[in-house]
Amino acid sequence: MTRIAAPNILGLSGGDHDCAASLLNGTEIVASFEEDKLARARHSAGLPRRAIRYCLQAGGLRPEDIHYVAAARPLYGDAGRQAAADHWIPKRLKQTFPNSKIVLLDHHLCHAAAAYYPSPFDKAGILTLDEKGDWKTGGLWLGEGNSLRSLEDIYYPDSLGNLYSRVTSLAGFGAGADEHKLQWLSAWGKPNYAGLLRQVIRSDESSLLTVDQSYFVSGRQERGGFSEKFFHDAGWKPSEPLTEEARADLAASMQLVLEEIVLEISQRIAAQTKVESLALSGGVALNPLLIERLESCGLFREIFVQPAAGNAGTALGAALYCAHGMLNLSARQRLEHMYFGPQYSGDEIKEVLDNCKLDFRYLPTRGDLVAATVEALQKNRIVGWFQGRAEFGPRALGARSILASPLGPYVNENLNDFVKHREKFRPFAVSVQEEKAGEFFAHGPMAKYLASLGKIKPAYREKFAANVLPPRPEAEGSSGEGRIRVHVVSRKTNSLLWDLLGAFGKASGLPVLFNTSFNLFGEPLVCSPRDAVRSFYCSGIDDLTIGNFLLSK
Which residue of 133, 275, 360, 551 could cross-link 544, Cys pair, CB 3.0 to 4.6 Å? Predict the structure, then answer.
């Protein structure tokens, strides 16, 4: 195939869950998005057909214009299905993209590529950790220039991600879906079961990770599949549900052991590579409490986490590896934002509003839009914020967000009870202008992606008390008191939200807003105007700013 100066590269992830597509032109990210958000269903399986179609539309391309299709090997729990998929997927892709070279890449290689290539590092240690991919559950890597070198692998069933999912199930949440709930619950418990979990999983000089399988029953799904031995050692009866206190203590124990294990593995990376920087990917990296611990442990000068660290991010990793690792394109692009999803014109939005026969107010200028939103927020109204390109990844970063004033009475209760319908132990994030953030919070560079935690300064702790996490004195190296989810907003990458925060600060004296994801309970983030309108009218949101239109109840 003739070498193309700026090839069009399509990256794909697929299988049983978290399918996505990413499009590069050379090394520039043109589009990247998850199938779930377009299909309006979680854990969509197979090839990401909707996401592929979106990426082609965003790039103004036809299938014939794609030069390379790089696919992360799809994940199937059954070996027979896995082998069949490895055979038919390249053939199917070649039929769709006839002028493309089709490349099938290892899952954890794609995780490593997604972590390293968008990072600001010329050389870095890389850690990938998930539940299972290509029968691997993790790996240590060294990234230098355009090269990725595998140092050590972790193989199933020795899996930190799998154990975390099992504990998620035992605590009464959904395995493979609600691990984020376990991590936030952990802040409210005591690690009374950490000793037991250290018997279940360990890391030592002889092995990166070892999980004692005697604590599980093969094939058992309920209550995490734990064996009678585990329940006996924990002092619980297998048939009885855990108390609220035991659930919180179990979560705290799992979180502490997770942090201990990852720190031990990170020490091995630092010793082997002598690097000052660490890049992370894989589902385990979607844990802000863990990242905060790594940032404060002193092993590395800087940490970078792939914001779309789960399996969806392997689509981007596959495309980036094709660009850098295979084609040796040297112009690496540092990740600046995650706004790679669909956007909609004013005409497209108005067509939906008219079709639904909705009353709305048209706000012709940016100033009008900002002023109307500030007015609503000052009245303690909850605002749906639908602006620009949608976020790639699981977190709302100010394109598909729900915003509220932190000054209003009962704001947490209103958001939880009437909008999110979620557990009260889960904190909301605070969005703040990049230039003003240091006045209120101490934070690291990953705060722009909500990938870590910040620390609120003592003078403001009472104002944000409902969203401040309790300290974790058991975790040596944690940031102690005042931990809070901080979202730092850059004028360069999200000027509209930056303007809104500034205007709200001038009006209220506090340039900070609560920010949570714009979605109904159990659904992905909204993507289209129709998704936003449906979620608005099916929840307790008071106002919706969608493009230059304002809807109010």
Answer: 551
Three-state SS for 464? coil
The H-or-E segment that residue 440 falls in is helix 437-440
Residue 391's SS3 state is: coil
Domain 346-552 CATH assignment equals 3.90.870.20 = yes
Rg of the chain on CA atoms, in Å: 23
CA neighbours closer than 13 Å in the CB half-sphere of residue 306: 32
Pairing state between β 123-133 and 136-144: antiparallel
Q: Strand 383-386 to strand 543-546: parallel, antiparallel, or no bridges (unpaired)?
A: parallel
Tens of pLDDT along the chain (553 residues) come to 455 679 999 999 987 778 999 999 999 999 999 999 999 988 777 889 999 999 999 999 999 999 999 999 876 666 677 777 777 888 889 999 999 999 999 999 999 999 999 999 999 999 999 998 778 999 999 999 999 999 999 999 999 999 999 999 999 999 989 999 999 999 999 999 999 999 999 998 778 899 999 999 988 888 999 999 999 999 999 989 999 999 999 999 999 999 999 999 999 999 999 999 999 999 999 999 999 999 999 999 999 999 999 999 999 999 999 999 999 998 899 999 999 999 999 999 999 999 999 999 999 999 999 999 999 999 999 999 999 999 999 999 999 999 999 998 888 888 988 888 888 899 999 999 999 999 999 999 999 999 999 999 999 988 888 889 988 755 444 456 789 999 999 999 999 999 999 999 999 999 999 999 999 888 999 999 999 999 999 999 999 999 999 999 9
Residues 289 and 471: beta-carbon distance below 8 Å: no
pTM > 0.85: yes
Half-sphere exposure of 288 (CA within 13 A, CB side): 32
CB 266 within 8 A of CB 129: no
Q: From edge to edge, which strands make up the β-sheet containing 441-442?
A: 441-442, 454-456, 483-484
- For domain 8-118+312-326, which CATH number applies: 1.10.569.10, 2.60.120.330, 3.30.70.1060, 3.30.420.40? 3.30.420.40
